[in-house]
Design a protein that fits this description.
The protein has two helices and 13 strands; from the N terminus they run βββββββββββββαα. The protein is mainly beta. Strands 2, 5, 6, 7, 8, 11, 12 and 13 form an eight-stranded antiparallel beta sheet that branches. The chain has a five-stranded antiparallel beta sheet with strand order 1-3-4-10-9, with no helix packed on it. β11 and β12 form a beta hairpin.
């Protein structure tokens, strides 16, 4: 399953080669592959490559969100060209209940392009994922650029509105069955069972 991020968050075409994301099933999870321009702006986070890094969204990242739009439970995955990552589990809009989960993530990077490959275990996904969106961010200060696979349509923009990747109403329908066949059933997640018992 392939996606291209061709628009800014507010529906203007991007001014560079679009970020590409590929999702493929593999043993016990999903492989997420990123192929993207490398801006090297802002500079690399100070965290160790291959490890979680808090507030990674302040750096150059590609993000993917997997949502159950009935429960508003969702998985957020952030991948950085410098090797850091951030995995968040959310229950309700912006309500993070688990963060900085471990992730197998490899990066290869040239001067102007980077590629990443992450393995997402099924246990990280909420049950019955029905919606998806993906984002990319780069640049510093007033040159910060926010891009979205499914952006806010221009007629719906409000004056003074800022980018917000947690506008779940703009996520589009998504089904793992497209990848895995109609008979496939998403494995139950022990992680999300813990979250349910805490409510």
């Amino acid at each position: 399953m392939d996606f291209k991020i061709e628009y800014t968050w507010d529906s203007f075409p991007v001014s560079h080669e679009p970020v590409r994301i590929r999702l493929n099933p593999c043993d016990k999870g999903l492989k997420m592959e990123v192929s993207a321009p490398f801006f090297n702006d802002p500079p690399a986070p100070l965290g160790e490559p291959g490890k979680p890094f808090s507030e990674l969204w302040n750096y150059e990242v590609v993000e993917a969100f997997f949502l159950n739009n009935t429960t508003e439970q969702y998985l957020e995955v952030e991948l950085c060209p410098h090797g850091q990552h951030l995995v968040l589990l959310l229950s309700g809009r912006r309500n993070v209940w688990k963060k900085e989960l471990a992730l197998s993530f490899k990066v290869s990077r040239g001067e102007t392009h980077w590629e990443g490959e992450a393995f997402l275990p099924w246990s990280y996904f909420p049950s019955k994922v029905t919606r998806f969106n993906s984002f990319a961010i780069h640049g510093s200060n007033d040159k910060r650029v926010y891009e979205a696979l499914y952006p806010v349509p221009q007629p719906e923009l409000q004056q003074g509105q800022n980018p917000d990747f947690h506008r779940l109403e703009y996520f589009k329908p998504f089904s793992f069955n497209t990848l895995l066949g109609e008979e496939w059933k998403q494995p139950e997640s022990d992680l999300w069972l813990i979250e349910k018992s805490d409510i």
